[in-house]
Amino acid sequence: MQPAGRPNEPVELFKTEVSAWARRIGVEPREVHIRPMTRKWASCSSAGRLTFNADLVRQPPRVRAEVIVHELLHLKVPNHGKLFRSLLRAYLVGHASKRNDQ
Ligand SMILES: [Zn+2]
Fold first, then answer.
1. Domains of the chain
2. Distance in Å, CA 85 to ligand 1 centroid
3. What does pTM read for this prediction?
């Protein structure tokens, strides 16, 4: 599901990943920004604006997927409760994501 455009551009590719996950999860982020961030991988505003750390585009696919799904899920579930964690796990299953520290 890649757009015709310029798949070599890492930022564009990353945004494509974000919209693919958004469709899958069934959410529509109002805005997606990518910029340098110092202390975290991403943030999500209550208005539906997602900001991702520019360094993320160079991380391995499973790290990107985890961060993207995490932030997109916040558009559905605003906290990190049981529901959030089980949805996160469900979406990342089969995506080669196995983190033992969660
Ligand atoms: Zn969170």
1. 10-92 (3.30.2010.10)
2. 10
3. 0.83
